[in-house]
Specification:
Oligomer: single chain
Strand content: under 5%
Structural class: mainly alpha
Order of helices and strands: HHHHHH
Number of helices: 6
CATH topology: Four Helix Bundle (Hemerythrin (Met), subunit A)
Radius of gyration: 19 Å
Number of domains: 1
Helix content: over 70%
């Protein structure tokens, strides 16, 4: 179980995971030609970039002020909703990109073309790391009162 001594390392890991995810999203935005999806991805990515700092602050303050629990829960919920939106947009953009690709290929090229599904496993792994890091931060905050 995480404890207060682990807090600094957990904060570093949480920030690293969020920054990494934000960079992946920016890279992904360059491949999306649908303005609506690009905008949705941009808005969700803003949350991923902006929420970690106040969320970590709430984790640290909550140990001495339990009234902040709801504020932290709200920020955490917003972060997870942003990550869910990123995953949804990536899936939608994959679907649209490959539908368009198949329509653009001539029938003979389509028969010989090997199409691999794009991998969004890295994104899913990063989301899992963020969730794990947030859970560890919460555990470390709780252990400061013990």
């Amino acid at each position: 179980a995480a404890n207060f001594a682990d807090f600094n390392e957990l904060v570093r890991l949480c920030i690293f995971a969020n920054v990494s995810l934000a960079k992946m999203v920016v890279g992904r935005q360059n491949t999306i030609d649908d303005p609506e999806l690009e905008n949705r991805l941009d808005i969700a990515n803003d949350y991923v970039r902006q929420i970690p700092e106040p969320l970590i602050t709430k984790f640290a303050e909550e140990a001495s002020n339990p009234a902040l629990y709801n504020e932290r829960e709200n920020l955490q919920k917003q972060l997870f909703q942003a990550i869910d939106e990123i995953i949804l947009v990536v899936l939608l953009s994959n679907e649209r990109m490959f539908k368009g690709l198949l329509l653009d290929l001539a029938p003979m090229e389509r028969d010989t073309e090997v199409i691999e599904e794009p991998k969004y496993g890295d994104l899913m792994e990063m989301m899992s790391k963020i969730g794990d890091n947030l859970a560890n931060l919460l555990e470390a905050g709780k252990n400061t009162n013990a």
